[in-house]
Amino acid sequence: MDAPPHWLDPEQKVAWDNFIRMQETLIGRLSRRVQTDSGMSASDYIVLASLTERGGGRMRLLDLAKSVEWEKSRMSHQVTRMAKRGLVAREECPDDGRGAFIVATPAGCTAIEEAAPQHVEHVRRLFIEALTPHQLSTLGRLSKRVLDHMERLPD
C-alpha cells in the first residue's frame, strides 16, 4: 500500500499558495501589457528575449526550448507561428541534419527592442517597486536556492 500523502502544514500551504497566486497574477498582467503595448504575445516576447539576451540572436531549437523550460514540440509550434509573421527564421544546422537554428530576423530584433523598454517599466512598477532593496536581495537568493535545488533533482 502507498504511503499517505505528506500534506503541507498551514504555514507551508500559505507560502505556496501566495507564491503561486503572485506568480500567476504577475505573469498574467505582464502578458496582457506586452500584448497591448507591442502586439506580441507573451510567448513571442519570451522567445525573442531569450534569443537576443542569451543566444546573440541565434540558438539551436532544443537549446532555446530548454532555456525557457518548454517542451521541444511547444517551441517548434511557437517558432512556426513566429516565422510566418517574420519574427524568426529557421536555418539548417550544417553539422546536424536534424537540428535547426532559430534566428531572430531584423523584424524580430526591432520588435523586441521596441517592446523591452515598456516591459521593464511594467516589471519595475508591478514587482521591483513592491519590495525594499533588502527584500529584493533576499528574494533573489531564495529564488536561486530553489533553482539550484531543482537542478540537483531529476525531472
TrEMBL record:
SMART domains: HTH_MARR. InterPro entries: HTH_MarR-typ, MarR/SlyA-like, WH-like_DNA-bd_sf, WH_DNA-bd_sf. Coiled coil: none annotated. One of its GO terms (biological process) is response to stress. Keywords: Plasmid. GO terms for molecular function: DNA-binding transcription factor activity. Residues 1-148 form the HTH marR-type domain. Pfam families: MarR. This is MarR family transcriptional regulator. It comes from Streptomyces parvulus.
